[in-house]
Design a protein that fits this description.
globular; Rossmann fold; six-stranded parallel beta sheet; 39% helix; alpha/beta; 3 domains; 569 residues
Amino acid sequence: MATEDIKLTDGMHLMVDALKKNGVETIFGVVGIPVTDLARHAQESGIRYIGFRHEQSAGNAAAISGYITKKPGICLTVSAPGFLNGLTALACATINGFPMIQISGSSDRNIIDLAQGDYEGLDQMNIAKPFAKAAYRINRPEDIAVGVARAIRTALSGRPGGVYLDITTAMLSTTMDADAAQKSLFTPVEPAPAQIPSATSVERAMHILAEAKKPLIIIGKGAAYSQADELVKEFVEKSGIPYLPMSMAKGLLPDDHKLCAASARGFVLGGADTVMLIGARLNWLLTHGKGKKWNPDARFIQLDIDAVEIDSNRPIAAPVVGDIGSSLGLMLEKLKNAPLQPCKEWLESIDKIKEGNSAKMAAKLNSTSSPMNYFNALKAISDVLENHKDIYVVNEGANTLDDARNVINMYHPRRRLDCGTWGVMGIGMGYSIAAAVSGKRPVVAIEGDSAFGFSGMEIETICRYKLPVTIVVFNNNGIYRGTDKNLSGSSDPSPTTLTIGARYDKMIEAFGGTAFNATTPEELHEAVNKGILSGKPTLVNCVIDPAVGAESGHIGNLNPKSTINNNHA
């Protein structure tokens, strides 16, 4: 065959072909040197490209897309600064257990390895390693298929997480025989195989549950990610054990379920003699299973896919190491032959506490104040969302996060998306975009004004792609609150004070979105309802009292205070 008859392809086109071969439908990213044409060719091939204003938001979108779909979300960035911007999202995906692949263009290896000073030169792969499950580099186009397959398998298998995939500039432009390139492509077989727990571990767990007088189930986002929704529901209802959903597990069973103990959280944590963790970890979100909130004599059962997580803070009496679906399936088989009998008095005491706490919450929600406070504002939003139960709710902030988690009921799994295990601010707009694109449903984002600032420019992205996202910014002029004073007496604002009377709604008008300024619960209700029904990008500036808000929300104990007196104290 004559040389001129050989058809060639290059690494850039083959990379797109490999992603297509593996079912990638969407890429979230920011283009520039050396990946601009890669995004163009991906779009040409039928992959949807969503272009962001900042790589961290693109990475957050990829991460939560992975959580929603159980397929690795793809984030594409440029080299060096763009790569670094994406690392926070990559690390957050790994900590949260979300499957994500950050693909970044990188500089000439020869120049980098000799530190000769390339354009945006950085040893990206080695920098990424501490922040991801794994990091790989593709140097030759003939290795693309293997590189993509390894990244997918690593992101999905075991505990999911973030993977970094480095694609060099030289590789992207290197050519090879097109037929040989196509033959090299493949899809990994069963990248996330079931992990079956041992029969002994299941027996042990069921035995401990049978002995419990005051059992409690805690459901975590790992259970939500597993999509073993019916098994979780069946186990809770057939066992009759009260349950406490962690924030992103809300909706696996509806929040108004009779066995939901969320409104008696403190009581059940302190009273339970046996705690069964389903895809939940005893980290800071549960005060490490220690302290005055917990029964010090409680025994723990833990269902987790990663054995390393067992005994991380408290001794686990019955570890069940396997995927959630397989573990619960085997436990349900045991439950059929030996039904559990939770203590009637335990359930009745929980119901009594729930009744009292619900009455206290109702008083907060129905309070009247001008300006609004967090609770009567959230009630206005909650009343709207009761008519849109399958909508995505994105939530971040300090008080805005804590209070919304307690007020906004969820009725479907994986519909509540928040900052998760790390508590990272800035996830709001990236998560909202991914929920609208990958989840294919309308979104309401409930944002603290400080949290919104981390990713607020992405409202232009939301408007550019005409996404059905309604954003509510709880505006009290500050971080936590807007009334703090500068202790030096100078005219500079305090460290926690933002612009007084800011009009965030005006921002979205600049990009063609719909804007509302709400100063009463009635105005807020109407604005959110109109935003959802319109299906168009909408932002509501929700004016609340600058004086309301506790520093750091429910975790103020993590923010140390100075113990030294001074003239300003």
